[in-house]
From TrEMBL:
SUPFAM superfamilies: NAD(P)-binding Rossmann-fold domains
Keywords noted in UniProt: Oxidoreductase
Pfam families: adh_short
Protein name according to UniProt: Short-subunit dehydrogenase
Source taxon at top rank: Bacteria
Gene3D superfamilies, alphabetized: NAD(P)-binding Rossmann-like Domain
Family: Belongs to the short-chain dehydrogenases/reductases (SDR) family.
Length: 254
């Protein structure tokens, strides 16, 4: 095993996609990698493939279950040094089909799922004066984009949460990172009916994520070219941004 700063790692959203690939890579980096999601079978199958991986099935919207899981991992593998909070859901939705239940689910899973984990992790990390919380957001949180009514706002909230936590927790010895992926080929994006420029395989995304963690980055982005374009979009004045959305994004998203 590589010389690693982590003994006990927790990854949520690890039954598929980026989280599963990260778990597979992380299994060579840390002796204890706890993997969570709702699909117990997928977690058990991953855990059977590597001695470092252990399955902790979980619905991140259940705050009590999240707390109990963090306590179980701590008891069985030691205090959690690194938590990658990646459980997430995406539903394509046009503004004219505004579906309140789906908007609520997006917020419950993507935002409150992370908040539940942060609440479970903080007491231990604060008392030890160490730990690293990694929040998986998205470039979709940079600005409001078409068809992302039930998704973009949840990721914008996570980007804001990460900034707040980073500033306030640094003096307590706790690191915070935010991961803002562009398009990654996973079950989440497989049925998207629109072009996904620069899309990369989940394995490449996980490699980039791990590399960012090893370098101690605050914001970890991939694929770089596409994300840089999205960062430019973020800096544009509103009138120009909305013109670009009308002219180039809305037409392609139809
Ligand atoms: N793919 C992309 O292009 C892209 C771009 C930007 C950001 N992201 C973000 O990256 C993260 C990983 O997504 P992915 O692309 O790897 O998609 P994915 O393969 O669909 O993974 C989503 C993961 O979240 C888990 N999950 C969903 N709801 C959950 C719940 N209530 N409780 C616990 N786990 C739950 C899923 O497992 P179960 O269904 O088994 O619970 C799965 O493990 C997400 O936060 C996503 O928003 C992805």
């Amino acid at each position: 095993m590589a010389d690693t700063p982590w003994n006990s790692v927790w990854i949520t959203g690890a039954s598929s996609g980026i989280g599963l690939e990260l778990a597979r890579l992380m299994a060579d980096e840390a002796p204890h990698v706890a993997i969570s999601a709702r699909s117990a079978d997928a977690l058990e199958a991953a855990a059977a493939s590597h001695a470092a991986l252990a399955a902790y099935p979980l619905d991140v919207t259940d705050a009590d279950a999240v707390k109990a899981t963090a306590e179980r991992i701590t008891a069985e593998a030691g205090p959690i040094d690194l938590a990658v909070l990646g459980a997430g859901t995406w539903k394509l939705m046009d503004a004219e089909d505004f579906d309140l239940a789906a908007v609520r689910t997006g917020m419950e899973v993507n935002y409150m799922g992370v908040a539940n984990a942060v609440a479970a992790l903080l007491p231990g990390m604060l008392s030890r004066g160490s730990g690293h919380i990694v929040i998986v957001a998205s470039v979709a949180g940079y600005r409001g984009l078409p068809k992302a009514v039930a998704y973009g706002p949840t990721k914008a909230a996570l980007i804001n949460l990460a900034e707040t936590l980073k500033a306030e927790l640094a003096p307590h010895g706790i690191k915070v990172s935010v991961v803002n992926p562009g398009f990654v080929d996973t079950p989440m994006t497989r049925d998207n009916p629109f072009p996904m420029p620069g899309i990369i395989p989940a394995r490449d995304a996980a490699r980039a994520l791990l590399s960012g963690l090893e370098k101690g980055r605050y914001e970890i982005v991939f694929p770089t070219g596409f994300v840089m374009g999205m960062k430019v979009l973020r800096l544009l004045p509103n009138a120009l941004f909305f013109w670009i959305v009308r002219k180039f994004i809305l037409t392609k998203a139809k």
